[in-house]
Amino acid sequence: MQGMFKAFMNRAESGISTDEKRACELFTKDLGVAEDLEEFLVAANAITEFGSTSLSPLIERSISSRKNTRNIAEYRQRLHAYAASAKNLRRRILEFMSRKCFQFDRNEANTLFTRLVTSLAKKGYPVYTTNYDFALEEVAIANGIQINDNFSKKGQRSVWNSSIDFPLGNALTIVKLHGSVTWYVDGEGNIEKIGS
Question: How far apart (Å, rounded) are the C-alpha atoms in residues 93 and 63?
Fold first, then answer.
């Protein structure tokens, strides 16, 4: 995802603002985060959720033991600013990745992957992938191949099966280890797949 990082840092491709670029530089230079969008997401999650972890009170107690309430207030203020910046950066990265992953040549994907997808489906071999895109699913759909991806139909919706069931055989079984641009969390906390 380093190529995606460079694209994200390019204002013409991503529309990144000066403040967002500064936040990225803080991540790489001050925090030592690798120039990789997945690494940025992990770091952004850690910063965003830090205030609710057991480490935050530990650091506050360490500061308060010195009886300097100004440091605690400054710490909380900086933590809040970092968390807000990280949350915004995370949102922008996910938007950018989704946009990029939806942009692929479907005809080229069919040319490249039809034999592979057909063979995997016939033999019942599962595919474990860290890709966010849906090129393999697109090829399966275009060729009338069923997809086993742990989603179950509930009326018009496709909802994640919490019992984790990936049946093998006679379909493209695909396990997306990092999720997909076609998944989202609805208002009730259910993982739903769009475009199904």
Answer: 33
The type of residue at 23 is A
Which ranges of 50-134 would DSSP assign to H, the alpha helix?
A: 55-64, 69-102, 106-123
- Which region, left, alpha or beta, applies to residue 21 given φ > 0 means left and ψ of -120 to 50 means alpha? alpha
Q: How far, CA to CA in Å, does 159 sit from each of 9, 95, 193?
A: 34, 22, 6
* DSSP run (H or E) holding 9: helix 2-9
The dihedrals phi and psi of 116, each to the nearest 5 degrees, come to -60, -50
Q: What is the mean pLDDT of each run of 10 residues along the chain (196 residues)?
A: 82 90 86 84 79 68 60 76 84 83 87 95 91 88 92 85 80 89 81 76
Q: How far apart are CA 31 and CA 43, in angstroms?
A: 9
pTM of structure = 0.63
Strand partners, 157: 154
| 181 CB neighbour count, 10 Å cutoff | 19
